[in-house]
Amino acid sequence: MNKAYARLNHQLSVEELFWQQKSGIKWLVEGERNTKFFHMLVKKKRIKSHIFKIQNPDGSWIEEPDAVKSSAMEFVSSLMKKETCDMSRFDTSLIPAIIYENDNLSLCAVPSMEELKEAVFNIDKDSVAGPDGFTSYFYQQSNHLAKVLPSMITDNQSGFVGGRLISDNILIAQELIGKIDRKSRGGNVALKLDMMKAYDQLEWDFLFRMLQQFGFNSQWIGIVRRCIANCWFSLLINGGTVGFFKSERGLRQGDSISPLLFILAAEYLSRGLNALFATYPSLHYLFDCSMPVSHLAFADDIIIFTNGAKSSLQKILLFLQEYEVISGQRINHSKNCFITHRNMANSRTQIISQVTGFIHKCLSITYLGVPLYKGPKKVLKPPICVIERIDRLFNNFLWGGSAGTRKIHWASWHKITLPSNEGGLDIRGLGDVLKAFSMKLWWRNDAKHRDLGMYPNRVVWRAVPHLPKIFSWHKPSAGEFKLNVDGSSKHNRQSAVGGGHLRDHTGTMIFGFSENFGPCDSLQEELMALHRGLLLCIKHNVSRLWIEMDAKVVVHMINKGHQGSSRTRYLLTSIGRSLSSFSFRISHIHREGNQVAEHLANQGHKHRILQVFSQAEG
User: Fold this and answer.
1) Domain named Reverse transcriptase: which ranges (predicted)?
2) How far apart are CA 48 and CA 64, in angstroms?
């Protein structure tokens, strides 16, 4: 009986793995033998990929199964047939020789045993291996071509190049679209290009010419030629294979080296556009930047930023036609579009449409899956209410709540999103994730461009001299005490007050005081506050004293020994006698640094007699 159970479990495991691989599901845990679920997914995939009918270019439909297969076979085989490309029009000045001998030696080197071992041990156990038994991880590690791409590909291209992200293009495109309404002759225009079957129609002669021009040696070009020029295809249509034919052009999508070869070939377009814009500066898109951008590219997804004048557009279209003749690429004019701001005159948009043959679109548009539009920058940040609503959905899901029922939430969402070492569940809140992604972009940009001689903080330092100065209170030296005093008055000098505090070298307050002096002028209230503070210092047996006050006139009178007018002479004389009891110095401090004394002085309005208190009493 036990042997029978063991054999049954083994057969169930085999069946589970078979249907799991057939359905392409990897997120189920081991032991979930839901064969009905797998069967349903496989059936759904088959129905989705089934071709029931094909429409001919003349609009008629083909529905007979054999005719559908024949039509598909004819279309794909014609797509793979070589076309004549005029390599005599290849501009060699656009492509410099960048690859050196060391690079060629590295490219032609055989993958090491360490790379092979690492690739084998990283193969997904649930994946169906290809004919050679290696996953894409092997190609990523052993493909040395990717290492030399950053030095060869211009900054306009961000696809499949190490150190570059798709977000770079999105952010730059958003900045440029934000300036699309800048006034200029012809106006700002963005041309969004759509390449027809970009990978399938790339001519091999053009690709090999590009590799040769970049400086790749004949050995490595020969390796590439043998890889891509010996491809045979059969079509899998409605569960059966059709045909067996050899391709004469194009690159295989899904092959890890194909995207790299494609962007090497497309570099002719990028460098050609940059050279064209450098020759004719009037082509440039007008916006506030010292580094003009002619175009952005992510593999075959291209957007050109240019001037909308007729002559500018004609120059760009002429170069695009040259590129089509040389490379075999075809621009789909029925799907291409141009973008202008909404206030551009209809006559101007009609001229652009007639010259280019493109469709006119207004903002917003989608670029690399992200909408681009002109508007306040704050619209790029999701509203807090939206983030909170999504977090609320997460919270309800966690506690098992639904629209009809509400379960008890035993902890707040804030506590749940704390790290586990702080009592949380390590669940990240959506707001924190958005902040992290934003800071990631900022950090990467700062780290990458920090050494380019651009100092964004210089604007801050230019503004610093014009900003209000920040003043702070400083401690006295060891063995010295510091007395800060201030006088104040309200209600047209009908009630003058004063106050201050004494602190030691650690900043500890020895005493503070406030007193109401009655009616007097501003100079008298400052002198009376100083006199009261000195008398209290004598009472506390202070010997070394540093006096600070924001009345610069009083500081000057004490330092110069002035006797003052008849109204202040008696106060200055009393202050002089008190100062003889100390080894003192007196200095001026700005009002911002004397706010404690000012606050104590204002307390004098609440009482009529002297109030003295220590820190402990306060």
Assistant:
1) 1-372
2) 18
- Per-residue pLDDT of 327-344, as tens digits, reads 888 888 778 899 998 888
C-alpha 534/C-alpha 578 separation (Å) is 6
| 276 against 58, higher pLDDT | 276
What are the Cα distances from residue 240, in Å, to 55, 64, 253?
21, 15, 21
Q: Which sign, positive or negative, has the C-alpha torsion 433, 438, 442, 444?
A: positive
> Sign of torsion, CA 148 151 156 161?
positive
Distance CA 342, CA 137 (A): 47
Confidence of residue 208 (pLDDT cuts 50, 70, 90): very high
DSSP alpha helices (H): ranges in 110-250? 113-121, 136-142, 145-152, 166-177, 204-214, 218-228
Burial code (b: 16+ CB inside 10 Å, e: under 16) for 34-69 equals eeeebeebeeeeeeeeeeeebeeeeeeebeeeeebb
- Angle of helix 35-49 relative to helix 2-23, nearest 10 degrees, comes to 20
Which tokens is 387 given? 């983030």
DSSP-assigned states of every residue in 203-217? -HHHHHHHHHHHT--
User: What residue type is assigned to position 530 of the chain?
Assistant: L
Residue pLDDT, tens place only, 243-262: 888 888 888 877 778 888 99
Report the pLDDT value the prediction gives residue 4, as an integer from 0 to 100. Answer: 74
When pLDDT is averaged across residues 25-38 and rounded to a whole number, the result is 52
Q: What token pair was written down for 292?
A: 């003009």
Going across the sheet that includes 337-340, the strands are 295-298, 301-307, 188-193, 337-340, 359-362
**What distance lies between CA 278 and its chain's CA centroid?**
29
- Model confidence over 393-414: pLDDT tens digits? 887 777 775 656 667 777 777 7
For the chain, give the percent of residues with pLDDT over 70.
83
- Is 415 in a helix, a strand, or coil? helix
**Res 122: pLDDT:** 62
Q: Is the pLDDT of residue 21 over 70?
A: no
Name the residue with tokens 């899904």: 254
Q: pLDDT by residue (tens digit) across 415-467? A: 888 887 777 777 888 888 888 888 888 787 777 766 555 555 666 667 767 76
| Cβ pair 176, 305 in contact under 8 A | yes
Delimiting residues of CATH 3.30.420.10 domain(s) in the chain: 481-613
Domain 481-613 CATH assignment equals 3.90.79.10:
no
User: What mean pLDDT value characterizes the chain?
Assistant: 81
DSSP H helices, 178-332, are 204-214, 218-228, 258-279, 310-327
Residue 195 is given by DSSP the state B
How many whole angstroms separate alpha carbon 380 and alpha carbon 542?
Answer: 63
